[in-house]
Amino acid sequence: MKYLKIFGGVCVLIMLYACSKGSKTTPDPAPPVAPASFSFNAIRVNGVNSGFKYINVNAKPVIKLSFSTPVNRASVAGSVAVASNTGETAAYTATYQNGDSTLVLTPTLKPITQYTVNISTALKSAKDGNLQSALSVQLTTAVDSTNKFATITDDQLLDLVEKQTLKYFYDFGHPTSGLARERNTSGDVVTTGGSGFGIMAIVAGINRNFISHADGLARMQKIVGFLNTKAQKFHGAFPHWLNGSTGAVVPFSAQDNGADLVETSYLMQGLLTARQYFSSSNAAETQLRTDINTLWNGVEWDWFRQGNQNVLYWHWSPDQGFAINMKITGWNEALIVYALAASSTTHSITKAVYDEGWANNGAMKNGNTYFGIQLPLGPPQGGPMFFAHYSFLGINPKGLTDAYANYETQNKAHAMINYNYCVANPNSKGGYSADCWGLTASDIQGGYTASSPTNDVGVIAPTAAIASLPYTPTQSMQALKFFYYKLGDKLWGQYGFYDAFNLTDPWFADSYLAIDQGPIVIMVENYRSGLLWNLFMSAPEVKTGMKSLGFAGPNL
C-alpha cells in the first residue's frame, strides 16, 4: 500500500511536468531581411550629360552610369545589353569606378546607326539588392569620316554627278514615251513636270558628250511625238501624271484629274530649251522644232484665268472644272508659269495678271533678316529650296530684276538662310553642319514632306544643296563632297544620289524622284557653263514676255 502511494505520487508529478512543458510558447524564427533595392543616379556619355538620348556618338563611346551603391559585377553581363535598332547586339567592355558604384561601358558601335543601352532590374548591388527601375539610353553614332571613294578633281566629280544622275532620265526613261517616271518605283506613271526637267538634263548630257547627238535627238523625237499624238491635254495643258504607255491621265488626286498648269510650265520650260538647242537646219531638227511649237502654242494660258480674273489657276478637271480653285500666287516655285504665260504668242496674259495674281500687289515681299541674311521675298526663313530651283532651271536670275526683287539676291539669300539654319542647327538634328545641309521637298521615312527651316524633320535632301551651286558655290561644293566621299557607301547609287537621308534617326532613302534628280543635273550645268539658262533665255518669246511683265537684266 505504501508503494502504491509512492508510485501514484510520482505519476502525478510526471503528469504535472508534462502538462507544464506542453503549455510553454516557443517564439517563431525572425523572417529573413531582403536586400535593399538601389537606384540610378546619373549618366555621362563621353563626359556629357544630356539625358537619355545622344547623337553624333563616336564608334567607341565611354558611357558612365552612376548608382546609389556599389554594383555586383557578376550581375552586369546578364542585365546590361547594347543593341542596334535592327536587333544586332554590340559587344562592350565593363569597368568600374568609385568603389564599383559607377559602371563604365565601352561598346564597339557601327557608324550612322541607332543603338539602345538597356539596363534591366536584374542588375544587382554588392549586397544583392535589385535596381529599382530599368533604364534605356539611346545612342546614334556619327558618320565615319573616312572617304568611301577615291579622291578625284572637282571637275571630275561634277562630271560624274551629272553623268550618273542623267541615267535616271535617259537609261530609266519610259520605253514607250521616253518621258520621266515619277519615281524609280512608278512603273508606267510618268510625270510631266519631271519630264521637262529630264529634257533639260538630256540636253546637258548631249552637250557634255554623255549621250551622242543622234541618240539625244532620237529620244527628243520620241518624247515630243508622244506628247503630240498620245498624251491627254486639256486646253493645251497637261496633267500632273500620265500613263507612259497610253498617254491617259493618271489622277494625282480625286479632283486633280485634268490640267496642271504648273507642271505644264515645267514641261514647256524644258521643251523650249530643247527647241533652242536643236537649231540645225536639217529636216529632223526642223521638224522637231515645229512639233515643239505645236505643243507650246497650244497651251491656253489665258483660259486658266477662270473668267478673266487677274490671276492664273493651278488645276482644271474635265468633270469637276475649277473645283480645287487654287490660285497660283507667289512667292513659291511657280514664277515660270507667269513668265511663260506672258511669253505665249497665242494665249498671253497682261502685266495686271502678274502684278495682282502672282505678286499680290507686292504682298509677296518679305524683307526680314534671318541668320544674318535679308530675304526679299517669300515665307519666313525662305521655305523649301525648290522655290529657288524649279523656275530658275531656265530663267537666269543673274542680274534679273523687276518691281519686286533682284532675283539673284533673292535666290542667294534663300540658299544662304537654308545653309546658315543647318549650321546653327537650332533643333539639334543629327549630322547638320557646314558639310551637311539642304532642306527641300523630298521623301522622308514613311512619307514625303516639304522640309524647310520652319518644317524641319531632320531630313537632308542632296538636291537642295547641290542644285544651289549657282547661288552658294563654296557651301554647295562642300556638301556635295561630303555626300559623295563620306556618305557615298549609303547615299550613292545607280542614278546618282538617293533622294534623302536622316542622321538623327538613321535612315537612307532607296528612292529616286524625277523632280529632285533633274535640278541636280541642270543646276550643276548652269553653274559650270550657264548652258540651260542661255538656251531658255535665248527664246525670243521669253525675252518679249518677261520684258512685258517689267523684268530687266543682262539676259533680256
From TrEMBL:
Pfam families: Big_5, Glycoamylase. Residues 1-20 form the signal peptide. The keyword Signal applies. Gene3D superfamilies: 1.50.10.140. Residues 55-140 form the SbsA Ig-like domain. Keywords: Signal. The keyword ATP-binding does not apply. InterPro entries: Glycoamylase-like_cons_dom (IPR019282), SbsA_Ig (IPR032812). Residues 327-539 form the Glycoamylase-like domain. It comes from the Bacteria. This is Glycoamylase-like domain-containing protein. It comes from Mucilaginibacter pineti.
